[in-house]
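Fig. S4 source data, part A: sequence.
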Amino acid sequence: MTDHLQARQSDVTVDVPLHVDRAGALPVVQQVSTQLRAAILKGQLRPGTRLPSTRTLARVLGISRGAVVTAYDDLLAAGYLVGRVGAGTYVSPELPPTPAVSSGAPPLEGRPRWLRGPLVTPDVAPSRTDEAVIDFRVGQPTVAKLSDAAWKRAWRRVAEEALPGAYADAAGDPELRAEIAAYLRRSRGVVCDPDDVLVTSGAIQGLHLVARAVLAPGDVAAFEDPGYRLARQVLRERGARILPIPVDADGLRVTELPTGPDAPPLVYTTPSHQFPLGSRLSLPRRHALLAWARTQDSLIVEDDYDGEFRYDAAPLPALASLDPARVVYLGTFSKVLSPALRVGYVVAPHVLRERLAALKTIADYHTSWPVQRVLTHFLRSGDLERHLGRMRRLYARKREVLVRELDGARPVARVGGLEAGFHVHLELDGRLSAAEVARWAEERGVRVSVLSPFYAAGSAPDGLVLGYGGLEPAQMVQGARVLVEVMNSLAAAAAS
């Protein structure tokens, strides 16, 4: 019901509408106190205004006097109201006068002096849930094969543990760090101790911490071109000057890295599955990159974002397994389980560990304790590696389906980046414009990523990037056939 609170501002009676819904989700007391607080903040009830007695307001609203007394007491305790013995209840005169506005706060005029720098717009693809569109979104795994029984079992074990009453170690739960270290030894050949591992809220936070620890504003950071746009933005936001280094079929072209006084202190690379082209850094280039880092006294950041998923080729050693003193290894559970977890990890050289832990404390103190414990149980039980086995088989089948369906566009498009991960690169010949293909495909309900935005320097070749991790095989077939029809039609039109 809606009634009016009649309050006194000097000799003026002020009407303030109050709405009380006895069947609402909020308790009646909270409804009254929330609306009174809003009226005070909007200036409808000014400092010094006398409120009606609790008995009067209860009668007007048709609720118990006790509910109004409790609401008044809440606002008295918060400092919005003051009580004068024998004289009633008033809006606190110590509150600054606020001009009455219809809703919200008055807008600021012009740009305030405390708002520094340009607006930061994260360079990430928007999250869309349009079921009518087949979205070849890059970096999107599937959770369809995650065992419900295993996942619930891990959470039940956490629920049986006592909730800590203090902040935890900024570096991460010791048991989880031990499980990650053991897992990396088995899966990636990275020999590390639990003390070498720092648990983060995702790989991007790990890169943030490393950039803060290693780079000063104005420093140069070498970066793969094309490369992961959000990671590049992280380094730029730190104030680094990005040095694009070309990539070919063997990965980062190490010979393009400067030496001597111009050598960058940091190099970012994705050697296991170059993002977005999908090539692997060859073994000779891995050794060449490490030799360059030793000679130039530089640090390598190895982002192994989906190195667990390999298909036709034998695994190459992680850079961190070849020279742990020169490499920071970034890993994540986003691709092997779900991005929703927001948990990753950093394996760092000894000289860097303490600094990263201190920066992590400043950033968010530590990653969520329950999620860390769930992952500890998931790793310790072997459920994670069993899940990975299922996912490798699933993604391998999906890849075969996608490649088979795209074969119809072979005269005008070539598929690459097939050895690992769950995205492919589609290289287009000169008859096709990637932007035009993407536009026509979107009109037919298929969304793909254009390659050119992943480049930081020079002209980019025409190409597309197709993520297939989150799609069902039937969706992939339908989407790939639309793409093939669009590409062949545009090529035929260009040739006529």
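Fig. S4 source data, part B ends here. The two ends are 72 Å apart (CA to CA).
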